Automatic annotation (TrEMBL):
Keywords: Ion channel, Ion transport, Membrane, Transmembrane, Transmembrane helix, Transport. It is found in: Membrane. The chain crosses the membrane at residues 41-60, 72-91, 126-146, 152-172, 184-205. InterPro entries: ALMT (IPR020966). One of its GO terms (biological process) is malate transport. It comes from Holcus lanatus. This is Aluminum-activated malate transporter 1. The keyword Transcription does not apply. One of its GO terms (cellular component) is membrane. The keyword Oxidoreductase does not apply. It is a multi-pass membrane protein.
Length: 451
């Protein structure tokens, strides 16, 4: 008996210890999520605040008596409409309000037509069923249209739901118009509470998220080129395997940014003017920039895979050492130029200033180096003995062309978004040219860009 009790005690102790470890692990995970982005904690409190405010409509007797059981629709609206960003909440709120209004009006019209059809011998129930069938089918088909699915999919869903509920209820409910009014008013109350809470209590703007994602991607691409310069083409390059290096991992998050970017851009288009972001800000240009960044990251993935596989820092001594050294130096210059351009573009995008005209010179230098390298690779037969050098150089030259497209895209974004012009733009150009050893007056085209 004592042994059984002891066994049960040990089992209970082990269970409690296991639960304690699980609870501690869960608490650590919650803490990490909260520290990673404190806005998540704020959003959770905002949802609780919105629900507490909307509950007043249900708790106050005069309000409840005027709206009746439809008051609960306000609570449900807060639950389904409240989103993390202002744009997402605006999108769902406006979609829900407008879809409810349109659906209620059409449902009341269907009810009147069904009553009229009954006078001609067609049953009201049959008429309502026919209306529900055709309208719900047509609305569902609209969800397959890409433009509608991207912006109004939630609104179409709410339209189908509201129309079906109101139309079907009209067969049993006598005061149909009052029912439609009450549901519409309560939904509007819920939407307004969501919007007020989201906009005025520590707002999280989708537009800022798009902006941060854009210059963050540019920074990550720059890190890749900086790593290539120091780890693969530098004078003190080692011979260790490059697998696991940080610069060969940073670009991967850029490849997976499309879904987040598209969602944020869609929600940003719903947001009013805020901060530095004007009404009708060119959000689509951010998507074009993101596409170019992902294309560049995809080329980086091909180059990184090749670098890891063949260990680029080891060139065969028997295969024209002078040529290998020259190729290495040229690749290092291309990487340095590209990294500098991307860093400047990231800074310009982050501060919403026009990119410095020095980018033109840096990109041109990188393009010239890439063209010279292509010619060298095509004309020198000795390079065939070190094919991995040719592959690396060719992939890197392709990346230079993609960086040029990214720079042009940022310039277009700066024009459309009315980025401010830095006051010291001309000085930056002069310093950059002088640092390259150029003497004499600045080129006219550079002066015009600076002005």
């Amino acid at each position: 008996m004592v042994g059984v009790i002891a066994s049960c005690g040990l089992l209970l102790h082990s269970l409690l210890a296991g639960l304690g470890r699980r609870a501690a692990g869960f608490a650590r995970k919650v803490g990490e999520i909260a520290r990673e982005d404190p806005r998540r904690v704020v959003h959770s409190l905002k949802v609780g605040l919105a629900l507490a405010l909307v509950s007043v409509v249900y708790f106050v007797t005069p309000l409840f008596n005027s709206l009746g059981d439809s008051t609960m629709w306000a609570v449900l609206t807060v639950v389904v409409v409240m989103e993390y960003t202002v744009g997402a909440t605006l999108s769902k709120g406006l979609n829900r309000g407008f879809a409810t209004l349109v659906a209620a009006c059409i449902a009341v019209g269907a009810h009147k037509l069904a009553e009229l059809a009954e006078r001609f011998g067609v049953g009201e129930a049959i008429s309502l069923a026919v209306f529900v069938f055709f309208i719900a089918s047509a609305a569902t088909f609209l969800r397959f249209i890409p433009e509608i699915k991207a912006k109004y999919d939630y609104g179409v869903t709410i339209f189908i739901l509201t129309f079906s509920l109101v139309a079907v209820s009209s067969y049993r409910v006598e005061e149909l118009i009052k029912l439609a009014h009450d549901r519409f008013y309560t939904i509007i109350v819920g939407v307004l509470i969501c919007l007020l809470t989201t906009v005025f209590v520590f707002p999280v703007w989708a537009g800022e998220g798009v902006h941060k994602l854009a210059f963050g991607n540019l920074d990550k691409l720059a890190q890749f080129f900086e790593g290539m310069e120091s780890e693969c083409f530098g004078e003190n390059t080692g011979t260790d395997n490059l697998e696991g290096k940080d610069f060969l991992e940073e670009y991967k998050s850029v490849l997976n940014s499309k879904a987040t970017e598209d969602a944020l851009c869609t929600f940003a288009k719903w947001e009013p003017r805020h901060g530095k972001f004007r009404f009708r800000h060119p959000w689509s240009q951010y998507q074009k920039l993101g596409t170019l960044c992902r294309q560049c990251a995809s080329s980086m993935e091909a180059l990184a895979s090749y670098v890891i596989t063949t260990t680029k820092t080891q060139y065969p001594a028997a295969a024209s050492p002078d040529l290998s050294s020259k190729v290495r130096k040229t690749c290092g210059e291309m990487s340095s130029h590209c990294a500098k351009v991307l860093r400047q573009l990231a800074t310009a995008t982050e501060t919403m200033t026009v990119p410095p005209p020095a980018n033109l010179l840096t990109v041109s230098a990188a393009m010239k180096a890439a063209e010279c390298l292509r010619s060298e690779l095509a004309e020198n037969a000795a390079i065939l003995q070190v094919m991995h050098v040719a592959v690396t150089a060719s992939l890197l030259a392709d990346l230079v062309a993609q960086v040029k497209e990214i720079a042009e895209c940022v310039d277009v974004l700066a024009r459309h978004a009315h980025f401010k012009k830095p006051k010291d733009a001309r000085r930056d150009v002069a310093v950059d040219i002088l640092s390259r050893g150029r003497s004499g007056p600045l080129p006219d085209v550079v002066i015009q860009c600076a002005e």
